[in-house]
Amino acid sequence: MWICHESRVTRRLIAFVAIILLFLMLLTGCDPYASIAPYNTASKWICEDPEIVLSYWRDENGVLQEKSWIIWDGEEIDIIAGFRSGLIMVTLNKPSVPTQVLFQGKWKYEGDKLIFTIEEDNFFGGAYKTLIFSKGE
Asked: What are the residues facing 101 on neighbouring strands?
């Protein structure tokens, strides 16, 4: 009887340790920088070719605000840049029309630069595969 009870406790302990190890493996598989989106690391990001500015600030209530744009053919086009776990989606900022995706792809940091790799281009006509941003003032 004592051996049976000890065996049950051992099995439960092994199962508990296995669950903890699985949980730790899941946690370490996450990208720790995925939540550090560009709007949390600089108030302004500037790409020179093509001219794109991503500008962020917090209002008096602490709510994140964005004023971003692309200069294309001499025209300023308001955009919204959405970041999620290494992915970027840039849409036209016109609330009166359905969401129009201009381009999307992946983003990453390389040193003090922000790099967009465009995977779907509905705006530039394939002219750009990579966009490089520097921190602005």
From this structure: 91
14/23 Cα distance (integer angstroms): 14
Note the pTM of the prediction, 2 decimals.
0.71
Q: Tokens representing 42? A: 């600089």
Residue ranges with strand state E in 1-137: 44-47, 51-58, 64-72, 75-84, 87-92, 101-110, 113-121, 130-135
28 three-class SS: helix
**pLDDT per residue over 8-60, tens digit each?**
778 887 878 878 777 766 666 555 555 578 888 778 999 999 999 999 988 99
DSSP letter (8 states) at residue 137: -
The 3-state secondary structure of 2-62 reads HHHHHHHHHHHHHHHHHHHHHHHHHHHCCCCCCCCCHHHHCCEEEECCCEEEEEEEECCCC
